[in-house]
Specification:
Layout lengths: L3 H7 L7 E4 L1 H10 L8 E5 L7 E5 L5 E6 L4 H7 L7 H5 L13 E3 L1
């Protein structure tokens, strides 16, 4: 049963931001209830802010999940493909290891 928060994420409207992830990240999200890490991200589309609900798409551009993002779009673009250990070196700060924490991801 979906929590109220996860239901709210799934039914959010006005989704602007999009993150495209590789197959490894998609599998981890779908089967392992894992967080979305920067290493799994291949592209960041549109402008969004920390705390926004964004779409998570696979490499075929099919939306399969949504989540509340921990970083804004500019920060996400900078850390694409990086290990979480390197976030602080790239950005100069680190709020989270994950772009989207698993508790804030809803699979559609």
């Amino acid at each position: 049963n979906l929590s109220d928060k996860k239901r709210w994420i799934g039914y959010a409207t006005n989704i602007v931001g999009k993150i495209i992830v590789n197959d490894g990240a998609k599998t981890a999200l779908l089967t392992g209830e894992k967080s979305l890490l920067p290493i799994g991200v291949v592209e960041v589309k549109n402008t969004f802010h920390k705390g926004d609900v964004i779409s998570i798409l696979d490499e075929n551009k099919c939306e399969f999940a949504r989540g509340i993002v921990n970083y804004d779009s500019e920060s996400c673009k900078k850390v694409i493909g990086s290990h979480s250990d390197n976030i602080v070196d790239i950005l100069g700060f680190k709020n989270y290891d994950a772009i989207i924490t698993r508790d804030n991801i809803t699979i559609l």
